[in-house]
Design a protein that fits this description.
The protein is an alpha/beta fold. It has 15 helices and 13 strands. The chain starts with 15 loop residues before the first helix and ends with a helix. Bound molecules: 4'-deoxy-4'-aminopyridoxal-5'-phosphate and glutamine. The site of glutamine has 5 residues, from loops.
Length: 382
Amino acid sequence: MTPAITSRLPHVGTTIFTVMSALATEHGAVNLGQGFPDFDCDPALVDAVAAAMRSGLNQYPPMAGVPALRDAVSAKIAALYGRHYDPGSEITITAGATQAIITIILAIVHPGDEVIVLDPCYDSYEPNIELAGGTPVHVPLTPGTFEPDFGRIAAAITPRTRAIIVNTPHNPSATVWSAAHMARLAELLRGTDILVIADEVYEHMVYDGELHQSVARFPELAERSFVVSSFGKTYHVTGWKVGYVAAPVPLMAEFRKVHQFNVFTVNTPVQHGLASYMADASRHLALPAFYQRKRDLFRAGLAATRLRVMPSTGSFFQCVDYSAVSELPEADFCRWLTTEVGVAAIPLAAFYKGGFEQRIARFCFAKKDETLQLALTRLAKL
Ligand code: PMP
Ligand code: GLN
């Protein structure tokens, strides 16, 4: 008989993304739930990876990642955000942002430490903190606007606070932090030893001519921050699971101690392919225009429905308030929308600890125009 084990994560089930994607497939719904593109990446990127494989780049790369890719990441951060990270000692390539974040948390959180997360937040943060023996401290973003409430964040800080996780552009609200928000954060953390985990996976999806406010732009914050990004989002290859972390030497040294024992290193040919593809900066610089057009197309269609369209200034998400359409709680509404209307969405409640009185659903617009049009035709009937 299999021995019984006590769960390390007793409250965790299957992620909402997996659940909604399965429901969408089962009911033939247009899947605007889980965040991934339904179009292919640039064939030039596939060619670059295939060329690396064919030329024999198929064995373990260095633990911290292929040097050419770390050089490319360093150059990109310097060009966009003005901070130099040493590719040798301050950048590590990871198996996506997911592995980057859990590795950071395992490297810095001791049992009993507290980590502040801002709700709604990405679903992996809380279990990651719990696995490290830490305590997640949930602070809500301002209802309605999703702006950080620095008064509440300040009130949540205790002598046990080890870190705060900041995600901009934000999943699921599609809002972005301003330079003023970053300045407030710097002010709040000044004189403390609190670290920042900056989840910036949507860094290249900021719209309307605004700039992404990376913590790397703010020297005082950068000194205490791990910056996380994901090639999956930037190059339309979410299934490749490759990302990176940039952090000052003392933080990165601890990160690598854990990284070497939870993945050791990441897929070699994909790293080489990404390095050569990234050399052309126009590829990531073109992303805001590419996604802004899709966002605008989707928003224009939604404006003709009974859903209330909320702001979307970054990421590839669009939230809607459906209170004019239904009284159902969010999870029930999203199920109903998937099974009866044929469009899958994600309930915002899935990103909150406990209940929250609002009627908001998240759509992903990283889809072919025809996919968006089909979804809009169905939503127009609501
Ligand atoms: N953080 C956020 C906010 C995300 O939306 C995602 C995407 N799933 C991730 C982290 C994980 O990224 P990756 O697929 O590179 O692991
Ligand atoms: N980040 C994606 C989202 O928010 C999904 C990632 C996942 O399926 N874990 O939809």
